[in-house]
Amino acid sequence: ARMGLWEWNPATGQAAWSPEIYDLLRLPRGDGVESGARFISMIHEDDIAAVDAALGQAQARGGVEPMIFRVNAGDGSVRWLMSCGQLAQLPGQHEPRLFGVNIDVTDTVESEQRLRAASVGRERREAVIQAVLEHAPIGIAVSLAGEEQLAYVSDFGLRMLKKDDANGHAWDVWQIYHPVTRAPIAKEAMALHRAANGEVIHNEEWLIRAYDGSLLPVSCNAGPIRTADGSILGATVAWYDITPFKEAQRQRELFMAAVSHELRTPLSAVLGWTEALLRNPDPAKLERGLQAI
Fold it and tell me: Are 198 and 234 in contact (CB under 8 A)?
């Protein structure tokens, strides 16, 4: 039962419950003659003040307006009830009484609580994701199947390429070049487009032309966005600027070239004397050669 009827005499404290009230409260059914105090004693401690206030205003308001509160049920569970009542004095009665109804709304309240919790959790996740997208030093773009414009381009990605939001979502403004030949790449060969066809790309290096005309070396990763049934909804690509790595590589190569040059002259002398001594191990030459080495 989800609904039960009740009657309460505020002057005497006597109450009458329908059989369904016992069911709502998870109690064995009684004869229906009860005290108001029994019901009051079952109200959750955090809600008792609100119920007392509503009952205290019942005389002035002519009843109790619909309210929701918790009760500690007889089986140990906590149930949510919606209750309301009308103050009336029937013929033959000496005092006005409250006639009301209780409805078990536990399922509805708990469903709403789960929805609110899910909503809060979703909002928190979205806030975290948004913070990552805004502050992570990588560019991110998303395309959705069948759409001509890019669905999303991160602010950092736009700033990295010196593009504004107005034109940063159009496919044709993304000019990609081969890192070695610097030949332009067709849209079909772009990582994001290939990912939209199911391909997964890891650490591919490309050149992207920024809005100011410069070529920015990047490393990118891309993959498809799939629905629960495995169909492709779209694709996403993430890229980061590898200019510092390229500069470090260039400096390492220059260093190795300089070291190689500096070592070449003394090593040539050492090798020359070693070969000469091997061909002619004369004691006098041996001493001069060892001193030279």
Answer: no
What is the C-alpha to C-alpha distance for residues 123 and 117, in angstroms, rounded to an integer?
A: 10
CA distance 24 to 78: 11
Order of all β-strands in the sheet with 201-209: 152-153, 139-144, 232-241, 215-226, 201-209, 176-177
Strand-pair category, 3-8 with 176-177: unpaired
- Residue the block writes with tokens 């001193």: 291
pTM (whole model) above 0.85: no
Name the nearest CA neighbour of 42 among 27, 64, 59: 27
| Other CB atoms within 10 Å distance of the CB of residue 139 | 25
For residue 147, CA distances in Å to 98, 141, 167, 171 come to 63, 13, 15, 10
Task: Give the phi and the psi of residue 235 in degrees, each rounded to 5.
Answer: -155, 160
- 31-74 confidence digits (pLDDT tens): 999 999 999 999 999 999 999 999 888 888 889 999 999 999 99
Tell me whether strands 97-104 and 78-88 are parallel, antiparallel or unpaired: antiparallel
DSSP β-ladder status, 63-72 and 215-226:
unpaired
Question: Does the pLDDT of residue 277 top 60, yes or no?
Answer: no
Q: How many CB atoms lie within 10 A of CB 223?
A: 19
